[in-house]
Amino acid sequence: MPDGEGNMHTVDLLQPVDEELLRDIALNPANNQYLLFTRRNRRSSQSLVMNNANSIRNSNFNANHPTVVVVHGWLSNQRTDINPTIRDAYLNKGEANVIVMCWRRLALSYYPTAVRGVPDVGRGLGQFLNFLHTVTGQGFNRMHLVGFSLGAHVVGNAGRELRGRVARVTGLDPAGPLWQYNTNRLRGSDGGYVEAIHTDGGIAGLGIGSAIANADFFPNGGNSQPGCYTSLCNHNRAWEFFASTVTRNHLVARQCSNSAQVSSNTCRGSNFNMGNDDLNKSGSGLFRVNTGRRYPF
């Protein structure tokens, strides 16, 4: 499995979990950090603190602007590439509250421990967003939760904590190991509209290769990506594609009747744009889109 810097690590999926860390994570959801970026503070974050209303009132958070929460994956933190890439895509386009959630305390633990703690981290995020809603009055229909790899399951659990009331939940190549039959994984009821972008779903892939959301996109078939020669590159393409679609909304997929059509590139259904920042987006089914080898794809 890769870390946030692109280094690969051997993982023992049967390794005993750190029960003491998990108990602390469950009891203290405020372990998560929430770092706000807006057009008034593009590079220097403002820290929003759970149960501290002044940290929100004294920040640049604007309830009239849409909110997007970006959640990193395993062995990562607030500085991992996904965060500034998606942040800049939003802020270069228009006004937004971009909240980078850092959950490194658990994310830096051994993989099986991190997997076990994902539901509690997600619940903590959901509780924070409910607090944000209470303080600012911003409706959940103005919120979009975006998570990569393990972070995709984090945002799923956050949406579940809010009873599916957030406008959108997007899973970027949701993590596969230990998640295929895990009831805590991302699912279609976690938001008003739930999308998953699958880019490394092969037999030995880092992501889930099967449909788990309302709309599931399989770029280039969902297993290997043009210009990539490693599983890590395939995996990271999910957030690279998403950031590009926030800017351009240009990757148009075709609906597929089944997974065989996805694999054989014979989908002939209706068009549906992958990714983007549309809070009113809706749709369901399997979709394939073919992309280029390099940005903007």
Automatic annotation (TrEMBL):
Belongs to the AB hydrolase superfamily. Lipase family. SUPFAM superfamilies: alpha/beta-Hydrolases. The gene is LOC112045433. This is Pancreatic triacylglycerol lipase-like. It comes from the Eukaryota. Pfam families: Lipase. GO terms for molecular function: lipase activity; serine hydrolase activity. GO terms for cellular component: extracellular space. GO terms for biological process: lipid catabolic process. Residues 29-269 form the Lipase domain. Its main location: secreted. Keywords: Secreted. The keyword Secreted applies. InterPro entries: AB_hydrolase_fold (IPR029058), Lipase (IPR013818), Lipase_N (IPR033906), TAG_lipase (IPR000734). It is found in: Secreted. The lineage of its organism: Eukaryota, Metazoa, Ecdysozoa, Arthropoda, Hexapoda.
